[in-house]
Amino acid sequence: MKNNKLYLQLFLMFVVATALSLIFTNGGRYLGKTFYESQNYNNEAENLVYEFSQYVFNTPTEEEFKGALTVSDEEMYDYRTYYGSLAEQIQNIKEQYSSEINATQDQEVIEAIEQERDAKIADIKKNFEDDEYVKEKILVIKKKAIQQKLKEIEREKKEVLSKYNHFAYEFKDEKTGEVYRNGDISEKSVFKKQVNNVGKNLSGLYPLNYYEYDSMGILQDSYTLEQDLSDISGVVTVPASWIANTHISNEKSAFIITKYVYYGIILGGIISFVLLMTSLKPTLEQFNRKFQLRELFERFPIDIRIVATLIATYFAFIFNDSFTGSIQKLIYYYTDNRSGFLTDFIVTGVISFALIVAIVFMVVSIWVSLKEQRDLEKIWPETFTAKFVDGAISMFENRSIGMQSLILLLVVFLGGFGFAVVMTAGSFGVFLFYMFLFVVFFIPALYIFMRRMGYLNRIMQHTENMAHGRLTKDLKVKGKSPLARHAENLNGLREGVRNSMNEQAKSEQMKTELITNVSHDLRTPLTSIITYTDLLKNPAITEEERKKYIDILDAKSNRLKTLIEDLFEVSKMASGNVEITKQRIDLAQLLQQAVGEHGEDFAAANLDLRINIAEQPIYARVDGQKWWRVIDNLIINARKYSLEGTRVYVNLKSHEGNAELTVKNVAKYELNEEASQLIERFKRADTSRHTEGSGLGLAIAQSIVDLHDGQLDIAVDGDLFKVTVSIPTDK
């Protein structure tokens, strides 16, 4: 039941749409008009005046065509040389007849052929010798054209007078006094049209195309005679008494039937509209149904759906116009082509109805989509227009690529459009011009496009290889195009990836070494602690041994504590989870204090410590505690790893706005590592790891210096080890 109501509502909508379409299209020729006011009938009267202007009014005589009977020097020259020069024409004639002469043995036939040949040669010679002879031949052709045109005009005149015999008319030429009359225009009429000054919009035009009457086709020129009709005026009527005996009676009946059918459609549209607004008022829920075609439609962006709806509306209007037009044809020509017009009526009606139903559901779909998401800012990014604009903007972010792409698209479009024009025109001249443009513009553009696409494919292949870790050789950089710049950047990226992979491999190796070193440095004191703890459990040991074991446990525990604290501190610094409080501190004084604490240790290690500190204060904004740790770590590092009996140099100076602290010593152990690797965590010059220390001293110092925006550099020259720390001074 619900479906029946829906179908009825859709049919009523179709009736309303048909009525509206009718009012603005075919209905304008019928609604509110009589048969004699119709456009068709007025057109027939206008056609009468036009055809009379060509074949009845002031028709030309042979005398009036005398302007065509002139022969120019150019025409005579063209006539003579149409088949070539005199010598060429004579040679051609002889060659034509020689084959005929050779093909027969009959002397009489040969003589006849030779006479014909000689007559033609004599005629050709006379053409080149006598102007009057040529002129007379051309005039014969032109006179023939005039005579044929006059016969044609007379024949057409009879047909026109017979064709419009159901009209009464009276026209008068004021210049000649000639009157053109049919019937009595004063008789009671159902139609009347006054025509003043026929020549205002019309002229009697009589063209002569000479080539139509020239058997050889030599004369290509034409001549047009124009007759003045400005003095001709008159009246066209349809006497009431004539209608019954003419085709007008049937046309009038068809007009009246069509008009009332159209009135019926409009009345049906009004009734349908009233029903749709009252008892059969449709609701959004009725049409808001989900089905496969709608789901497919809703996959498209909202603006594409709107455009599709507008296009469907346009075609619905076109087919509805054809549908109402087919009603008119069915009434007018029903007896002539009954099945054809009936088929047209059914097909256009069904298509029109289907389109209107589709439009209803399309509008409902769009309305629901807009209703569910009313925020334009959310709708706009999902539209095809927004994506198209975004794509265009993206294309022109690199202006060179944008312009080149636009030019290529334009060339391809014009190439396709030109091909369509050539195929439509069918002209050899147009084809040659197109081929010129094709060779000069299209092929070079296609070549450039293919090269660019080939280059782009190589770049994409190179990128894919990089993505899979296959670092092939560098791409060849060609020219200065955006693709070339991209290839150059890709080569740089490839080198960066190679370095990154090397660094990653190096990092993995260092990570392995780090775990090994940490395990060794933690396990050594821990093993001692476990061992001596087990020894202390033995009640048989002496008090002196117990005291010795406890001292060893204390030393190993402190060693383990130092390792863990250094590891914890360097981890905090690596994560950036360290706060520093900067103050203005005299670095010279801080260094003096640090060196003073380690003086005895250096003497005990048989090392000569040489201090060189500037006499004036060197100020910098640092965290005093953290900077003390830097100095302390560097001095302790020098004490542990310096060769006995050598000198250790500690210098502090101000240089180019920076405070520079330098510690130099001769290494006790052979330095096989790179200088930069000695800063890594748990890296020690004593690779056998027999000396005490965490291996974190330089790493901690490096982290503290980085926190102060300073710089720590290490240099190794043979066994000479040098650390330089620089930090901006505060004057």
UniProtKB/TrEMBL annotation:
The protein here is known as histidine kinase
**Origin: domain of life:** Bacteria
State the coiled-coil residue ranges.
Answer: 136-163
What organism is the protein native to? Solibacillus kalamii
Q: Where does this polypeptide localize?
A: Cell membrane
Alphabetized, the UniProt keywords read: ATP-binding, Cell membrane, Coiled coil, Kinase, Membrane, Nucleotide-binding, Phosphoprotein, Transferase, Transmembrane, Transmembrane helix, Two-component regulatory system
* Chain ranges of the Histidine kinase domain: 517-731
- Keyword Kinase in annotation: yes
User: Membrane topology for this entry?
Assistant: Multi-pass membrane protein
